[in-house]
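Page 47, continued from p. 46.
Same chain as before, 277 aa.
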Amino acid sequence: MSDTKSDVAPRRKGLTRRQKRSLSRGIQYAVFVALVILFAVSADWGRLQNQFAQPEIADRMFPDVITLALKNTVLYTVTGFGVGLALGMVIALMRLSSVGPYRWLAGIYIEIFRGLPALLIFIFIGVAVPLAFPGTEIIGGTYGKVALALGLVAAAYMAETIRAGIQAVPKGQMEAARSLGFSPARAMVSIIIPQAFRIILPPLTNELVLLFKDSSLVLFLGVTLEERELSKFGRDLASQTANSTPILVAGLCYLLITIPLGFVVRRMEAKAQEAVR
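Result:
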């Protein structure tokens, strides 16, 4: 036997897990950049600008798009959110009640209004209610109708959110309040509900963003020129000018509200996570 050792080829090591993740991420970035470049090169920017970005048409929208359309959109959203929050609180407490009929009624309401499209609720408020109750006027006119329609839709979601927040509060909080002489109702109002709202504030703010977009359904109630919101305002001017620039401007106005609200939601969620840690 030869004393010389046979040369053994060194075994090639594979990529580490971190290297694989880096490679996968790099490939994804490359594909994304390639798609963006492909879109930028293949799109007809001239036609897009002609249809969606005419400065002279956009100038015609101001200041009414802010002082009228955006103002009405915010007003519809805030009033609808208020109605939904108040009604959702009542329904959430009914869901937690020890009285069976209260729980059943709350459950039926949530299943119906959470399952129906918001469009049908608006049509019901605008058409079915006047037919069922002739001569009856909802307080606030169009603003009252929108607040009621948005509130009925939002309440179904808010009720479940509020119920989950109340149940997330440790049971010891109620027991401690009762030991201090608080009645169940007073303990719920003074101790449990404030803690629950600190927990559910981010999802409630997110619900506000959703309502802001749902306010565009107001057109199905039949509004006057002074009651138009952003979508209706943009569509009307787009029809008059045979150009889509007003729709783009209306969309940007939505983003003026939804983006800051989205940032607020993320900040709230981050603070809530820090508090839990």
